[in-house]
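Predict the 3D structure for this chain.
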Amino acid sequence: MSLINKMLQDLDARSSGAAASQGGSSAVRPVTAAVRPMPRVLLILAAVAGVVIFFVAAIFAWRALTRPSPSSLIASAKAAASISAAGIAPAPAAAATPTPAASAAASATPPAAPVGMQAPATEPAPKQLVAGPSPEAKQVPVGAVSAEPSAKAGLAEKRRAGPALRASPAPARSAIAEKDEARLRSDAGLNKAQQAENEYRRGLSAMQEGRVHDAIARFEQALAHNPRHEAARQTLVGLLIENQHSDEAMQHMQQALALDPAQAQMAMLLARLQMERNGPAIDTLQRTLPHAAANADFRAFLAGALQREQRHAEATEHYQAALRLQAGNSVWWMGLGLSLQALKRNAEARVAFNEAKTSGRLPPELQTFVERKLQQLPN
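Done. Predicted structure below.
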């Protein structure tokens, strides 16, 4: 209210200042408007509001009067504690008389032992008096009475936990699972070749985005649909080698050659990895040789592998076959000269080294190496 009063004082000060500047008297005030009678509708609304306020106040007063006092609650708690300690269960105010069938069933049912306690086998379980309408007192086992509150407490606990469990939200689905489901839906109805092509394209997209593991998985899935998808196989092998997974790459190449041994490039790549590990590179190449006899690169590669194993006679044959297909390769002339020199065929070796030297296509270090070999050959 202080802020409102301050605003009113400011307005009064402004009004007084304006009147003084106009030469008028500061005591002049605006004429009060004539008092109009209150409309009938407003009277009715005010009466209804009063009735509502009256009923609300009556409800709050009734709750306050019927609420138990703290002293009565404390007394009830003390009484319950004393009854529990004495082992006597309080009887209800209006207990129904048990029927003979119910009494017989109760006597036939063995009492349940309380949690953490077990009565001795040789002594009968202690009995507990229950007040009833009949003059004769009936006995019930202590265990049956003490187990009932714990059962009720467990039931109440389950009832409290039930809504919370039902209200707990389901775990959010991952984006990967949603993408997989969308992929499966998009591939529904397609044959294996079409599914393989779709997976191959997804692998290319993942590889371009830098998701290498996802790309590898997509290419492997493409090969699962179509093992003869050469583009997926070659791209997968390249990714595996680039990421230092040579063993897996070799397995994929062996599978590819088992399906189609005519893949000369795949055979040469597998043989190169096998040579680094002293593996059966020559066997790999020779299985593909019937399908690559007219491939100059393949024949020269096989010649180099044979030369590495000191099998110079076979290496000479394959170098010569490669040079018949592509005579201008100076490196192959040099390789042929080395195998001829190892076989003591010096004249033929000199011709081969001269061909390599005069071609002018050798790197400087190899050019020097060939010149030194020529000097070492006997005339």
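The longest helix spans residues 40-66.
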